UniProtKB/TrEMBL annotation:
It comes from Sediminibacillus halophilus. Pfam families: HTH_20. GO terms for molecular function: DNA binding; DNA-binding transcription factor activity. Keywords: DNA-binding. Residues 13-94 form the HTH arsR-type domain. This is Predicted transcriptional regulator.
Length: 307
């Protein structure tokens, strides 16, 4: 049985997401077996659009996951992530005051890159530069990119370090929408995508495929549906206990102290495909006007105040 343990602060967003009878009903149905949105809509006697919105709310807080089944077209199957939720309401350890620094980095604002074809940048209304030409990644208009893709290599982002002098970083997390990169799109196309923070390897996630055939919520109408349409929202978190991918601990060797955030003028986030990856399936990275999630690369830095 998978249990999600929450403290008071973590429980707020989860409680907001499940304070709706339709979402609670969806979780109950998914406890029986995985369903697609059509099945959920039929069993709940709700319009498809209403059901899809409620499913996305549950996805956003990681209570359910949506996957595409190879060999079954573009059918998306929803599965619950946890069997129960436990909220700790016991006495809390007295802590120094904390606050968070949040920054949403546009995907075209990378500081360094090394990419191999197939590769390209896509803006809100057209391609940026020449498709499959790595030189396009150095075009002055790259900051307007809403989708970038490459078969091999990496992009690196340097976030402004807004940690107040004298304060201590207690946790840092990043989130981004991404998937594999295949010609046009291919649902069964695994890719080992790795993230590094301040030069330290955090985690490798194997994307199941390159998702297309069904338009993303934000994907512009001019972009054909036989191309990549959307990705999955992934979350990487580093604390004093180690590194977590979508809430699951994946690395104990690197901690928030290992990153030495207070000693650096910027915070580096690098994402790409390692040269020795088993699944060299490329990478698609989505901006706030492409795909399913209205964001670029979001960094959230939790800070313990000195005074």
């Amino acid at each position: 049985m998978r249990t999600l343990h929450l403290n008071f602060e973590e429980a707020i967003e989860i409680c907001k997401a499940i304070s709706n009878k339709h979402r609670m009903a969806i979780l109950r149905l998914l406890s029986e077996r995985p369903h697609n949105v059509n099945e959920l809509a039929e069993r709940l006697d709700l319009p498809f659009s209403t059901t899809a919105v409620n499913v996305k709310k549950l996805e956003d807080v990681n209570l359910i996951i949506t996957e595409l089944l190879p060999g079954r077209g573009t059918q998306k199957i929803n599965t619950k992530n946890y069997d129960q939720i436990v909220i700790d309401i016991g006495p809390q350890e007295t802590k120094k005051p904390e606050h968070a620094v949040v920054y949403d980095m546009p995907i075209g604002e990378y500081s360094d890159c090394e990419v191999e074809p197939s590769c390209g940048l896509v803006g809100e209304t057209d391609y940026i530069g020449i498709q499959d030409d790595p030189r396009s990644f150095y075009e002055t208009g790259r900051s307007e990119a809403q989708l970038l893709f490459f078969k091999a290599g990496h992009v690196e982002y340097r976030f402004p370090n807004r940690l107040p002098y004298g304060d201590k970083a207690t946790q840092i997390e990043f989130s981004a929408e991404l998937c594999s990169e295949a010609p046009l799109y291919k649902l069964d196309w695994p890719s080992d995508i790795t993230v590094w923070v301040n030069g330290h390897e955090i985690a490798t996630w194997t994307s199941p495929g390159d998702f297309g055939g069904e338009r993303g919520f934000l994907t512009p109408d001019w972009w054909m549906t036989n191309h990549t349409q959307y990705g999955l929202l992934k979350n990487w978190r580093i604390t004093k206990e180690g590194c977590f991918l979508d809430g699951m601990k994946v690395n104990s060797d690197c901690t928030i102290d290992t990153l030495k955030i207070a000693e650096k003028p910027f915070i580096s986030f690098k994402i790409g495909i390692k040269s020795d990856a088993v699944n060299m399936g490329g990478l698609n990275l989505f901006g706030n006007k492409f795909g399913n999630y209205e964001q670029g690369i979001v960094m959230k830095l939790k800070v313990e105040e000195k005074n």
